[in-house]
Design brief:
The protein has 365 residues and is α/β, with parallel strands linked by helices. It has three domains: 230 residues, 3-Layer(aba) Sandwich (Rossmann fold); 43 residues; 73 residues, no CATH class. 47% of the residues lie in helices and 11% in strands. It contains 13 helices and nine strands. It has a seven-stranded parallel β-sheet. Strands 8-9 form a two-stranded parallel ribbon. Strand 1, helix 2 and strand 2 form a beta-alpha-beta unit. Helix 3 runs antiparallel to helix 4 and helix 4 packs parallel to helix 8. It is globular. The termini are far apart. Bound molecules: 2-acetamido-2-deoxy-beta-D-glucopyranose (3 copies).
């Protein structure tokens, strides 16, 4: 960390804490789905504290809308990758996760994952190419930004931060097997003690579990390096000298981790990894009347809110019934929560009569 950059980040943090009007000028990298939903309230809070916020938005975005009225400045760019391509990739990934993965061996899953990831990286780099070679880049150079804030899920923020010489702040939940945090952020994670994210292991591992965890890390690292080959090539071409994407990611000053240490298994952290779980939460409002009644009627067991996130829009009747029958086995009452984009949950409500099932799902009724 260069001292100048560190100072800059510290100054910004102090400014944000003091709620001072002399805010910083923050550039925000584009993202999608729940990542964007998570980020938006944070940006609102930054504006409340007197910062200026500029958000990059690709023309083919599923969730970001540069024409909506907003307090932050949207900086749109035309992407050569059409919306339909993103929809297709997401559809393929979701179909694989919901309907295929359970019937495949680890190796088969790995191969399919790599196939989807390579396709995704190819289009993501095309997307990035549209941005860095457009007029947008010239506007960013003139933008006099103090800081880049990015969710690293879409690569490129580290490249643009490097080119514009901006300190980079990441916001991240986790990467699979903590690959980015370990390999790029230098987070120590001994495989005998720290279960890889999404390995389904806990911190209570016997010898075979530890061996499996070690192999899980190794296979995910190979996967990451394989995918980075393309990114490195792109970054090197753009900068004009050999450049490693992971090394640029490692230059991030601060990693804001969207959880808390007590939700995770104990593991070592570094001082520039900060837990900010719930940063997007707002003070609770009273529940709507029908929901309040539902909660009050739930008794000691309480309720479970069931939602399929931002990307799943439909589901086969068979899978719907499977979920409903699983939910029927828990003592809590279940409420299906429709989300803005999700037709899926409303089809759960309509097709299989989820609302009625809510009553039927409660074994005491
Ligand atoms: C984007 O926002 C504008 C203005 O609110 C609205 O008219 C338009 O329908 C929105 N576009 C999408 C794709 O939601
Ligand atoms: C995107 O392309 C359209 C049509 O070519 C053009 O009118 C518009 O100004 C471009 N937008 C940006 C942000 O470059
Ligand atoms: C869900 O919708 C997508 C695209 O709209 C379609 O390709 C897919 O077959 C649908 N899946 C199910 C299970 O209906």
């Amino acid at each position: 960390m260069k001292p100048g950059r560190c100072l800059c980040v510290c100054v910004l943090l102090v400014l944000s804490m003091a709620g001072n009007g002399n805010g910083g000028n923050i550039l925000v990298w584009f993202t999608e789905g729940s990542h964007w939903i998570n980020l938006k309230p944070v940006l609102e809070a930054l504006i409340d504290r007197g910062h200026q916020v500029t958000v990059l938005v690709p023309s083919s975005s599923l969730f970001m809308n540069a024409s909506e009225p907003s307090r932050f400045h949207y900086e749109p760019f035309n992407s050569s990758v059409p919306l339909e391509v993103w929809e297709e990739i997401i559809e393929e990934f979701i179909h694989f996760s919901i309907y295929e993965m359970d019937y495949l061996s680890y190796i088969q899953i790995h191969i399919k994952f790599l196939e989807i990831a390579k396709k995704e990286v190819k289009f993501t780099l095309q997307h990035l190419d549209s941005m860095v070679r457009s007029d947008t880049m010239a506007r960013l150079r003139e933008g006099k930004f103090d800081l880049m804030l990015a969710d690293p899920i879409y690569p490129g923020s580290e490249l643009v931060a490097e080119v514009l010489d901006l300190p980079l702040v990441y916001t991240l939940r986790f990467s699979i097997a903590h690959t980015w945090e370990r390999l790029c952020g230098q987070l120590p994670a001994p495989p005998s003690y720290v279960p890889g994210a999404m390995s389904k292991l806990t911190d209570k591992m016997d010898f075979m579990d530890r061996l499996w965890n070690f192999l899980f890390y190794a296979s995910q690292d190979m996967f990451a390096y394989h995918v980075w080959q393309e990114t490195d090539k792109f970054f090197s071409d753009f900068i004009g000298k050999p450049t490693s994407a992971c090394e640029l990611m490692g230059k991030a000053e601060i990693w804001l981790i969207r959880t808390y240490w007590d939700f995770d298994f104990p593991r070592p952290f570094l001082p520039n990894f900060k837990f900010v779980g719930g940063i997007h939460c707002k003070p609770a409002k009273p529940l709507p009347e029908d929901l309040e009644e539902f909660v009050q009627s739930s008794g000691d067991a309480g309720i479970v809110v069931f939602t399929l996130g931002t990307m799943v829009t439909n589901m086969t009747a068979e899978r719907r019934d499977m979920i409903a029958s699983a939910l029927a086995q828990i003592p809590q009452k279940v409420r299906c929560q429709p989300s803005k984009k999700s037709k899926c949950v409303s089809s759960l409500l309509i097709d299989s009569g989820c609302q009625h099932q809510t009553l039927r799902l409660d074994p005491s009724e």
